[in-house]
Amino acid sequence: MSLTSEKPTQTFAPDSLPSDDLTVLPADSSPASESVTAPAATSPSFFSPAPQGSSTPQAFKGWQRLSLQTKAILAAVAIGTLPVLVVGSFAYLTADRSITTKITETDKSNAASMSSKVSRFIFERYGDIQVLANLPILRNAKVREIVPVEDREKILTRFAETYGVYDSIAMFDLNGDVVVQSSGTPLKNHRDRSYFQEALKTGKPVVSQPDISKSTGKVSIHIAAPVRDAQSQQIIGVVRSRMPVAYLNDVIKEFGANQQEYHLIDAEGKFFLATEENQIGRSAPADFPGLDRLMAAGKTDDAVMTDQIDGARQLVAYAPLPQLKGMPNLGWSSLIATDTSVAFASQRQLLLALVLGTGVTAVLVALVAAALANRATRPILAASTAVEKLGQGDLNTRITVAGEDELAALGNNINQMAEQIQDLLVSQEEAAQEQLAAQAEIAKQQAENARQQQEAKEFLQNRALELLIEVGPLRQGDLTIRANVTEDEIGTIADSYNATINSLRKLVTQVQAAAAQVAQTATKNEGSVKDLSEDTLEQTESIQQAVERIVAMQSSIEMVARNAQAAELAVQVASQTVNQGDEAMNRTVAGIAAIRETVAETAKKVKQLGESSQKISRVVSLISGFADQTNLLALNASIEAAHAGDQGRGFAVVADEVRSLARQSAKATGEIEQLVASIQAETSEVVAAMEAGTQQVVVGTQLVEETRRSLNQITQVSEEVTALVRTIAEAAIQQTEVSTAVSSTITDAAGIANKTSSRAFQALQAFQQLLEVAKDLQNTVGQFKLS
């Protein structure tokens, strides 16, 4: 009887949820009786799968121990949460990289902007000191005589107030003593100042490194420039402006917004301006380990570093001051530091949003999954409980089935299986009773047969012992012994034994004769087989040497073929190159023609430039005349001012400045006249050079035509060489094929010779073994007694 239902097995899918739950009822109960609730996990039974071996992973065993409802919930949570995690993680990583790049680029841009702003500010101060060094009240002796010291001090004070960044402007003589200064505390001798010495030594404006002023005790920047006499152009002193670093702080304080810390670093790598005043004067690489690498690179960059003062992790953007044309290299740099908690706050907010969204999604999915899994697994757990009861022996258990889905089919199959098991157990019990009765009758018959067999066995054992005693001398090789033949079974054995002894006696006699003959033949042929083996071995070695020579010749032929093919390819490439050269020559001729036209047009433009320079020369002559007249008028004005006395001093100063400008204008117009004359001369030379270039272009065109004809001849020769090389390559390929066939034939012959040598050697060994066997056989059969 079959244990399974005749209905086909149906697979339960989560989409086909049953309308009613399956309930487990005893076989004699009605559908209206109380249902049995199945536990979450069932204990093992004979319906359960076989236990896994010790090699099963622990995680897989743990998963197997979970209930179906728990597995369904976990799977639903994973399916609902993992996509959110993957998409969210990818979006976070992409956004994090984008935001980080934007933040770092913004910080670097701010650092570069601050460096540029500081550089331009210092460049303006560099220009200020040059304006001060050219003031007539400082460099013109006549003006100094006319303008009293008090007025000059007022002028310098007005300069300082107008610019608003200097707290002192002063001029020192060559010994470092003050000549004139703006209002303020009287200054002492400045001869020992480094910027003073450098300005005198180089004769150029100087910007000092930030240091503490000996006069005020404040961190200041000193800008100095040599003052040259207006007439002799000799250095007569040094003008110096002093700017406290605090004024520079006003310029860059805008870069301290959004909790950012700005710093300025001098040429020695120390902070001279910073948001936190306790950092001023400290070493920048010491406060920010790793900054020395950025400073050594000398370019705008950023990195995350630890501030050694407060231990905070900060995003540091570094930028050296750009080098402006006309200003010395100060070696300064700027640095903007932002706490990573502030700089990357947007990333943390994004991560928090992702974590919260994922958590909420996981909770919602878990709740929905728990509800669905509970409804989907309830009928399955009921069926599992019923199967467990059946496994424990309660065959009256039945499942109330409602509906026609897969779970209903499962319940019907379980009920049918329970009924079939009950019927099977009844049939097995009846068959067992019938089998016990039959086995009892068989046991009686077997006992009687055993007794009879024991008696016959004892009789046969006695007769066998007698036979063994009779044939005992046979063990020493005595073939003359005969056994006593009786009428029982042992007599039959004795008769057969006597017949066997007779046959064995004849066989031993024949073996003795054959062994002697085999020994004689083996001894006779052993030498011949040995000579055959040695000859075959020498033949094999000769054939092997021939094969090696043919293989070497084949390699040489193949190399020739490859070289011929390579030569043919090279000739083809050369032919293509010549064709390309011909096309290039055509383009060159067209280009040279275009150049010739361009040169002609350029010559016309140059002639027009010469004519324009002549017009400029005439205008410059007029300007020079105006400058001479202005100089004369300024001289007359100076004379009139001198006649006017003290009231005309101010006008005299203006007249001197106008005269100085007139002289400079006259000097400039003279230089322009010289420049225009030089342009005219060079224009004439350019025209002549262009005409010569036109002639050279014509000659170059002719040379290109001749080169093209030569390239055509080279192309024809290359085609002939290609044909010859192709013929050589084909012949080499044919030789390679022939040598390959010869090599294969000789290789086969060598193989045959090797096999022959091997077989001859094997035959020699076989003869030697045969001789030994014949001798052993003679010794063995000699032990038998035949008469």
TrEMBL record:
Q: Which GO terms describe its biological process?
A: chemotaxis; signal transduction
- Where does the source fall among the domains of life? Bacteria
Q: Does the keyword Amino-acid biosynthesis apply?
A: no
UniProt keywords, alphabetically: Cell membrane, Chemotaxis, Coiled coil, Membrane, Transducer, Transmembrane, Transmembrane helix
Q: Which Pfam families match?
A: dCache_1, HAMP, MCPsignal
Give coiled-coil spans as residue ranges: 414-470
Regions of biased composition (Polar residues) lie at 1-13, 30-53
What topology does it adopt in the membrane? Multi-pass membrane protein
According to its UniProt record, where is this protein mainly located? membrane
- What is the designated name of this protein? Methyl-accepting chemotaxis sensory transducer
Which species does this protein come from? Cyanothece sp. (strain PCC 7425 / ATCC 29141)
Per the UniProt record, the lineage of the source organism begins with: Bacteria, Bacillati, Cyanobacteriota, Cyanophyceae, Gomontiellales
